[in-house]
């Protein structure tokens, strides 16, 4: 391994979107570091990548999360792109939501992203957060997740502003409703099948479609502070008057 090798880092690489991003980026960089607290899932993604796929077990809730990832990157080369594909979502009314749940959403989302980006930032690197429509749309019973993505948006904007002189590009890719193992666990396959029919495209998006945008943003050399929406026109279809037909 040489110090000049370009490393792609993907956190949450054992999840649906994270795994798709790691696989999509693997052909563009010398090494792809698959980071996840579930080592078996990270290893599955690295196996799909092949010899250029490496694994790091790390928990985004750890205060040393960012430095831990950066130290592993330094063992193999230098940061070229970092993708933070982690979040915590609990569905609960605002009267029932616990402080612990709120803090977990904030910790695994904007706080971990900041720690990761700060530790891994090298001149010319591309830093990408996987955002959410929840940044602007205050969906019911999702206060913690809404708040976390609102804060994550400001992490992206602030770092893009501050680090532009270093040529560091900070962007977000914002998925709509994507069919992932997490969504199936949260909603159930039957509910997802019914809900997908009401989406503008008549179907859920796929992790691979999100990864396509991530790969594009990673290579877009004059893009920073941008939010690339991958939602099949969902966000522009949310505004409706009462009683208005679809």
Automatic annotation (TrEMBL):
Name of this chain's protein: SDR family NAD(P)-dependent oxidoreductase
Pfam family, one: adh_short_C2
Example of a GO MF term: oxidoreductase activity
Family to which the UniProt record says this protein belongs: Belongs to the short-chain dehydrogenases/reductases (SDR) family.
Matching InterPro entries: NAD(P)-bd_dom_sf, SDR_fam
Keyword list, A-Z: Oxidoreductase
Source species of the chain: Kribbella deserti
Matches recorded under PANTHER family: OXIDOREDUCTASE, SHORT-CHAIN DEHYDROGENASE/REDUCTASE FAMILY (AFU_ORTHOLOGUE AFUA_5G02870), SHORT-CHAIN DEHYDROGENASE_REDUCTASE FAMILY PROTEIN
EC number per UniProt: 1.1.1.-
